[in-house]
Each structure stands twice: as structure tokens, then as C-alpha cells.
Amino acid sequence: MKFLSRLLFIEMVRQISQDIGRSRSLLYIEVNHTLQIASLLQGTEAEEGLLASIRAIILKKVKRLPNAYIGQLDHNRFGVVLDLPVKKGVEFAEELADYLDRQCITVFELPYYPKLIIGVTAISPAYKTPERMLAAVDEALYQARRAGNSVVKLIEPDDPFLHEYYNLLELLPELREGLANNSFILYAQPIVPLNHSVTTAKAEVLLRYRSGDGDIDSQNRFLQAAELFHISREVDLYVVHHFARYIHQQERQDIVYSLNISGSTIRYPGFLDKVFNDFREFGVDSRQVCFEITENVADQDYRQAILFMKSLKNRLGCQLSLDDIGIGSSNLSNLSKFDVDFFKIDGSFIHNLTEDPYCELVVDFITEAASLFHRETIAEYVENAEQLEKLKNLGVDYAQGYFTGKPELLFDPSA
Length: 415
What we know:
The structure is a single chain. The protein is an alpha/beta fold. It contains 17 helices and 17 strands. The protein has helices at residues 6-17, 34-40, 44-63, 86-101, 130-147, 160-169, 172-180, 221-228, 232-248, 263-266, 271-282, 295-300, 302-316, 332-335, 347-351, 357-372, 385-394, and strands at residues 24-31, 69-74, 77-82, 105-107, 110-112, 116-123, 151-154, 184-193, 201-210, 216-217, 255-261, 289-294, 319-325, 342-345, 376-379, 398-399, 408-411. The termini are far apart.
């Protein structure tokens, strides 16, 4: 048995998928952290030796199964087709991950303990097209990667997630074209003060897609697609650039605008340089800008988030807001670690604020924590006068929502 090339393996999967009379499994296998380990082992030669040893182990295991195929999809990723129903395919994947987990491979006289992550799906006519099946196993691998080492993740054709996945996947060409052709336009929603101690006018910049017919996507489907398929960084840079263009065309304003930042942007070293260059080119006063980062994103990539926030503050002089407070790991020890100016309370607690004592307790807790750490609070999704009055009584500083102000067009990049 030999490793097929990526193209030959995918073509073979396409052909096999036409045979609806047999139950087969499709696996994507990835060796985790090889680049980091190779760096520790001093170079690509060490990485190649490491991968060659792991590849030989995987090949030996696959060869024992009749009618199996294996392909080299990337330097550290393999595809496997098993002549087994998907339940048995998952069992094989778990045995393989467990077996590798107990191995020690010596490279350049240094020990390495390999870890696999594996995505599995069935080769099934229920997918309707080979492309959907390949997308499913790729997503299964992605979910396994997020879960950690030695993880096997199964996605089946009737998984509810896949219906949404395919719908968003179909938006990708239009999304990329929209970014290239300035089909995304900037809106702004007011963030209004609730007490006399805060007087700064604020607004959040929101992105909306406008189709060729002039219809506005109010469901943010394109932004969901960007997040799912890791294009959020390009979207963030698009917003920053055209926001800077907007500021350049205005008279001096005493408004602080909030711009949202995704998790992928936090991990992109070039973002700060691009923002700095846009601000310099268009004369943006960085004190007029507040970047919003969700609490979950900050928690998941804590060290990188801390460095990123410090750079935004120290190098650019921008303000910072920690968004969606309350649905992450909100506790005093975590909140105190983020050097932000605002705590933005998640709208799910505002929605039920006047009916659910727990929601009131959470809002009160965040408000007290903000006061303790000398931060200001913003409540989002404020929908009625009762909620607004309750927020005032709890000491929240700002409110945002359709009751206090609907989003309005800020800037049309194509104009």
C-alpha cells in the first residue's frame, strides 16, 4: 500500500461515493503540533524525520484492513478510506489515536510523544455530493482540533450543524466578491449615557451586506460565514479601512466609535501595522476608537489577547471594550486581568432583566465588578422603557439597543 497524492485521494473518494451499495468510512487524520515540536528539535530535518516515523505507524495500521486507502493530504495530514461502517470507522480512529498516544518516537536523540486528531464521517449518498462529504469530514477534523489532543470527532450526514454549514458555505463566493467590490456598508448604532457622570457620545460600527438588488442582509449571514470559514480577519480589516475613510471625510467629531475584533484577528501579527497605517493615512484620532473583543475570545486565547490589547492601548492609544460579558467565565479574577475601559453586558441578560432575578443578579455583579476595577458598563439589546429604568437603578453607565437608537447608515464605501 502506498500513499496517494492529495488529488488522487480526493478523486478516489469521489469515485467510491458513487457506490451506494457499501458502507464505508472517511477519516481525516492530523498530527498535532508538529511545527512547534520541529522548532524545538531545531529545524525541518527533525520535522521530516518525526513525520516519517508517524506516517509509517499509521500506514502499518491501515494496511491491516482490507480494501483500505490512504492519502497524504498535507505535510501533517492524511486521508483514509475504510471499507467499514462509520461506527467501526470511529472505533478504528479511537484505537489509532490511543495507540499513538502511547508511543515515544526518538528524533535526533530527543523523545517525542505524538498526538493525533481525527475527523470521521460516513461515505454516504445522504451527502448528495462528494463536495459536501469532504466538507463534512474537514469540519469534523476542525472540531476535533478545537477539542485538543487525541480526539476523534464524528459528523454524520443528518447532523443539524451540517445544514447550516452548507448554507453558509454557499455564501463564500459572494462574501469574497463583496469584500472586493465594497458591497459591505457601515452602519452605526448609538450607545447612550444613562447617568450624569458619563457624557461621551458613543456608537458601535456595524457591518451590513447589500446585494446587487439593494437588499440589506439584516441577519448577518455573511458575517456568520466569515466567522465559520475563518475570513473574519479580512472583514475586520475591511471595517477598519473604510471607517478610517469615513473619518477622513468628516469634520471633527466628539464621538467614540466601537469596532469589533474577531478571534482570528487577535492571532494576526500584521493587524496592528495595517490599522496604524490606515489611521495615519486618513488622519484618525485613535482616542476616537474603541475596539471590542468578546470575553469568550479573550478567554480562549488569553495570553495572545492580553498582548494584543496592550498593543492596541500602548501603541495606538485606542480604548478597549470586553464584549458579551456574562456568557464566558465571568469572575472577578478573570475580569481584573483585562486592561479594558468598558465591560459590555451580554444582551441575553438584558432581554429577561425585568422578569428573571438571576439576570438582575448577573447585571448587578458585573456593574459592581466594573466599579471595583474602575471600568464603565454598557448594556446591549435594550428593548423597552422598563429595562432602561432597571439598568439606571443598577448603575449601568450606557445603554445600546433598538429602544435607545436603531442602527443607521454611516458610510457607503462604494459611493
